[in-house]
Amino acid sequence: FRRLVLSDVRAAPGWYAGILARRLWATVAQRKLAPWALRDGSSIEPRRAPNEGAIDTYYAMATPVDWLGFGPWRLELPLVLFWGPTALLVLLFLAGRRAPPLRASASRLGPGLLVLLCLGAGGLGLPVLFTTAGGLETEAFAVVYFLGFALLVDEVVRCFSTRAAGLPAG
Prior knowledge:
Elements lengths: L1 H10 L1 H17 L7 H4 L14 H5 L7 E4 L2 E4 L3 H19 L4 H28 L4 H5 L2 H23 L6
Antiparallel strand pairs: 1-2
């Protein structure tokens, strides 16, 4: 089996690169969790093709990462609340490299973004190189978004506390 797979990859590397790119996008974008029950009537995107097998079952094995619970209460969050703060963090860093008033923030955010990058790279191995069929492994990538949210909150608190104390930015 291994020999057949490697033969196919060697014969058509573009085909395999396409598979890896689709898996990367499915993992980073959390595509299966894009539907929001309040808006779409469903929380998990149904499988699109027979070759996706029982992936919907795997996503239903545990509470999806976009659901929060406390006691009997449950709340599904829109997916943008996961990757949005991390995207904003990256944009703040990039803007800070060009805009002098944000330079101090950019220099503080750099090390945190490096940690975020390492965490993300580590979280991509199983779902991208092996399979996205196990929903739990794909959803585990959301830890990157939780850390991105925490880093953004930390920077916002730092900025407001610096201003409240009357200190210069930085």
